[in-house]
Amino acid sequence: MAKKRGISDTKLALINLLQKEKFRAVPPSERVLFLPHCLRKPKGCRGETTEEGLVCKHCSPDCSINQLTTYAASKGYRCFVVPGGEMVFNLVEKHRPKAILGVACHHEMAQAADRIGSKESSISFAYQGVPLTKTGCVDTKVDIAAVKAVLDMEPSPTPVKIERSPAAASPRRFPWRAGAYFAASMVIVLAALLLIPPLLGPALAPARTGQPELSFSKPTATYYTDTEGNPMAEVKVAVHNNGPGAVRGVLIRATALYCAGVYSPTDGGVRELLIDRAIPKDGHEDLSIAVRVHSFNDTAILIEEIIRGSAVTIGRIDPVKLVFIRNVDVTGYSTVLPGGRQANVSVEVFNAGDIRPAGSLRLVVTSFTSSNIQRDSKDTTRSTPLTRNETWSTTVPVDVVISDPGKPSFVVELYENGGTAPTDTMTVDG
Fold it and tell me: Is 300 domain-assigned?
C-alpha cells in the first residue's frame, strides 16, 4: 500500500496557485530557496556541514544542488540546503524572508508547514513548493526546469481581464457548472482554512518615513584582518537627503559575494545597518558597515537600500581578481612505468567578470619534493570560452618522486592573455 503523503499534489497545486502572485511580487533578494540534503550526489560530495545546513562546494557540475544554488544565487536568492523541517523553522525565524521556495518530499513539506504555521512562528511570507520527482531520502531527484521556472518569477504585468464566454450561461449546462463551481469553492475554502492562513499575512519589513530624494556616494571598501584572523571589508558610503523633508528609517544592506553566491552568511557576510535617527533636509550621514570576505581581492560586495522589503542597488564593489583559482586538491596518485609516479592535481578556476575567450587562460602546475626541490611542471590551456559566473574544472597530472619520504607540494599558477606573470597562485600539500 502506498504511504500516505503529507501534502497531496492537489493541495500543493492549490497552495501554489493562491500564493503565486504574492510570491511574484517579492523581489528575489527577499526570497529564500530551501533544498533538501538528500538531493546531493550520494558519493563524492564535498559540501561542508554548518549550523545553517550544507554549504555547496560546487564539486560536481551535474549535481542538482550545485545547479540550483548557483542559478538561484545569480538571481539574488539566499539558499539553504537543509536536512529537515526543524532547521527550516529555525532559519525562517532567524532570517525572516518575505518569500520561500521549498523543494522537498510531500512528507517534509507537511512537517515544515505545520512547524512554521504554528502559533510559535510570527513570520509571514509568500510560498511556492516543488515536490521531488524521486523520493527515498538518498539520491533523490527534482525537475530542475520546474524549480528554475519558479526562481524566474518576476512581478507580473497589468492583469488581463478575462471575459466570460456566453456559453458559460447556457441553461442546459448550468446545473453541472454550478455544482462544479461549488465543489471547487469548498476545496479552496477548506485548504485555506487548514493549510495556509499563516502564509497570507502581510509582509514584515522596515519602511522609512517621509519621501525625500536620497542620493548615495560611490561605495568604497577598506580591507583588514579582525582579531580572530578573518579577512574583513569596511564598506563606507554616504547618504544625502536632498529633501523635501527629514527622513528616518533608512536601511542599508551590504552583501559579500564569492563565486556568484553569498559568502559566509553565518559569519557576517551579510550585514544590515538601520539609520533610525532623522536625517534633515540637505543633511547627510556617513555609514560604515563591516562584512566578512573570502579574501582581500576575490570577493565582490553589493550595497543596497531596503525600502518596504524591496532592494534597490546603491553600488557594487567588484573584486580585484575577476578570474581566480577557487580550489586546488590532490585527488590521487598513479604509477607510471617505468618506476615513476604521478599526482592528479584537481583545479577549479572561477570567472566573476566578463567572458574569457578560448585560449586566454592557462594553468601551470609545478610539483616539489618534500625538501622543496622542483620535480615537474605541466600546463594546460582552456580551449573553450569561460563565461561569467562559470567554473573551469580540470585535472593536471604531474610527476612526483616515488621515493620521497615526505609529502610533495604543488604550486598552481593562473596566467591570462599570454602574460608572463601569474594573475593568481595557490599552493597545496600532497
Answer: yes
> Cell for 426?
595557490
Contact at 8 Å (CB) between 203 and 125? Answer: yes
Interior angle at CA 286, CA 281 and CA 288, nearest 5? 145
Q: What is the DSSP letter of 388?
A: T
pLDDT given at position 425: 92
pLDDT of 378 reads: 94
Instruction: For cell 492562513, name the residue.
Output: 197
Number of domains into which the chain is organized? 3
One domain for residues 126 and 220: no
Residue 208: inside a domain, yes or no?
no
Choosing from 150, 173, 199, the residue where a domain stops is: 199
Lowest model confidence (mean pLDDT) among 18-22, 279-283, 329-333 = 18-22
pLDDT of residue 187: 46
Higher pLDDT, 411 or 114: 411
Residues with Cβ within 8 Å of residue 220, at least 6 apart in sequence: 235, 236, 237, 317
DSSP reduced 3-state for 21: helix
The answer on pLDDT for 103 being more than 70 is yes
Among 281, 300, 317, the domain-final residue is 317
Give, as one character, the DSSP assignment of residue 218: P
Burial class (CB in 10 A: 0-12, 13-18, 19+), 106: buried
Note the pLDDT tens digit of each residue in 290-310. 999 988 889 999 999 988 777
Q: Are residues 163 and 298 in the same domain?
A: no
CB atoms within 10 A of CB 15: 21
Domain that holds residue 279: 214-317
Q: Are residues 277 and 346 in the same domain?
A: no
Q: For the chain, report the end-to-end CA distance as a whole number of angstroms.
A: 53
Instruction: Check whether 201 has a pLDDT greater than 80.
Output: no
